[in-house]
Amino acid sequence: MNHWSLHPQLAGDTHPVATFGLSELRLMDDANYPWLILVPRVPDARELVDLDAAAQGALMEEISRCSRALQALFRPHKLNVAALGNLVPQLHVHVIARHTDDPAWPAPVWGRVNARPYTPEALVECVSRLQRALGV
Q1: Which end of the chain is more exposed for a tag (fewer CB within 10 A), N or C?
Q2: What CATH code would you report for 8-134?
């Protein structure tokens, strides 16, 4: 029997926010952007098609929940939602609030500017605000 565990790269680059029915919700340690990561707790899942129909539906609901929270808290110009996995093969979905004045706009966030880690105080504040907005 396979057991699910968080990929070490995701564990090192993110902070825990909440546990949903399907996914672990994490905050990317980059204060340049409000950037959430959903990681479905499905062993060996690499692609969206590796999830059965029920899990795909649950993931879409969790993406929507995170998107609404980011909209309420940060009033972004655009939300970027992506499941790339080119460097980290474990299935994970990025939900990123984008603003026209963010450091990478209008390009994708990957590789544009160096990550700006949260200070301990800012991390606690951001996670708390997200948890309140998500109702967890």
Answers
A1: N
A2: 3.30.428.10
